[in-house]
């Protein structure tokens, strides 16, 4: 699945350069010349990430970033500010608006690609194509395969997406509403109990291998993927 990235930039030449850079890296570029157009795009669907210029006509990119962070639907969207404003005070203002990274113009396309990948890995790891693993359970998004102890295991598309999301954020508790938004899409209106049905199906997939306990129910809160103890105790990378 091609990841969509929203490019909010009023200069056509820079917007085109950003779009070409993204498409060269395998992303889908969605373009917006101003904050109003960006909001309309976001109402249609949420992208994987936003590249946001500071100096926009009408509402500034900084103000838009603050607005997005204040909205429950968009507060977790990864945002990279791409701007000519390079002063320390500007960088601080951008970071205080909770943008995830700050890239100054002129920028290196190679560096921008690296920064995008770094932000996605940190903020939205399930969006990447990197394999995910918990104990013997390994999910490879690139080949759309689930293996347990090296054995290929059939799994339905919704259960695959659900497991992918949980594996990308182990040990964190997710409410049913959060799972609906991130796995089914925030424009899909179905009952929260649908999540329970697919959690049961996912556990049935894992049960023959004794891995169904990976998916924990947190009473009154939602669900969590619990890593095996040896994996939790591994030292984190510095």
Q: How are the SSEs ordered, and which strands pair?
A:
Layout (H helix, E strand, L loop, with lengths): L3 E5 L3 H13 L3 E5 L2 H10 L4 E4 L8 H10 L8 E5 L4 H9 L4 E4 L4 H15 L8 E3 L2 E4 L4 E4 L2 E3 L3 H12 L7 H9 L8 H14 L8 E4 L3 E4 L3 H4 L6
Parallel strand pairs: 1-2, 1-3, 3-4, 4-5
Antiparallel strand pairs: 6-7, 7-8, 8-9, 10-11
Helix pairs in contact: 6-7, 6-8
List its traits.
238 residues, alpha/beta
Helix amount: 40-55%
What radius of gyration results from the CA coordinates?
A: 19 Å
Structural class: alpha/beta
Largest sheet, in brief, is: 5 strands, parallel
Spatially, the strands of the biggest sheet line up as: 2-1-3-4-5
**Spans where pLDDT lies below 50 across 5 or more residues:** none
The strand count comes to 11
Q: How does the overall form come out from the CA principal axes?
A: elongated
N-to-C SSE string, H for helix and E for strand = EHEHEHEHEHEEEEHHHEEH
**How much strand?**
15-25%
Give the N-terminus to C-terminus distance in angstroms: 31 Å
Total count of helical runs of at least 4 residues: 9
From the structure provided, what is the oligomeric state, counting identical versus distinct chains? single chain
Mean pLDDT: 89
């Amino acid at each position: 699945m091609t990841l969509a990235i929203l490019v909010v930039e009023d200069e056509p030449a820079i917007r085109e350069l950003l779009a070409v850079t993204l498409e060269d890296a395998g992303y889908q570029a969605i373009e917006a010349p101003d904050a109003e157009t960006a909001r309309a795009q976001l109402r249609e669907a949420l992208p994987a990430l936003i590249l946001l210029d500071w100096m926009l006509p009408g509402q500034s990119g900084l103000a838009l970033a603050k607005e997005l962070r204040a909205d429950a639907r968009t507060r977790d969207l990864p945002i990279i500010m791409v701007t000519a404003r390079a002063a320390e005070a500007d960088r601080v203002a951008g970071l205080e608006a909770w943008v995830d990274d700050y890239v100054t113009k002129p920028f290196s396309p190679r560096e921008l690609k690296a920064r995008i990948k770094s932000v996605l890995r940190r903020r939205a790891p399930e969006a990447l194509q990197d394999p995910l693993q918990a104990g013997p359970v390994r999910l490879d998004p690139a080949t759309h395969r689930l293996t347990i102890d090296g054995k290929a295991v059939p799994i339905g598309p919704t259960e695959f997406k659900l497991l992918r999301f949980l594996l990308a954020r182990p040990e964190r508790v997710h409410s049913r509403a959060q799972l609906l938004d991130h796995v089914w899409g925030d424009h899909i209106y179905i009952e929260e109990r649908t999540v329970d049905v697919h959690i049961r199906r996912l556990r049935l997939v894992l049960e023959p291998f004794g891995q169904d306990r990976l998916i924990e129910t947190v009473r009154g809160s939602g669900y969590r993927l619990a890593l095996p103890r040896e994996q939790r105790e591994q030292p984190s990378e510095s």
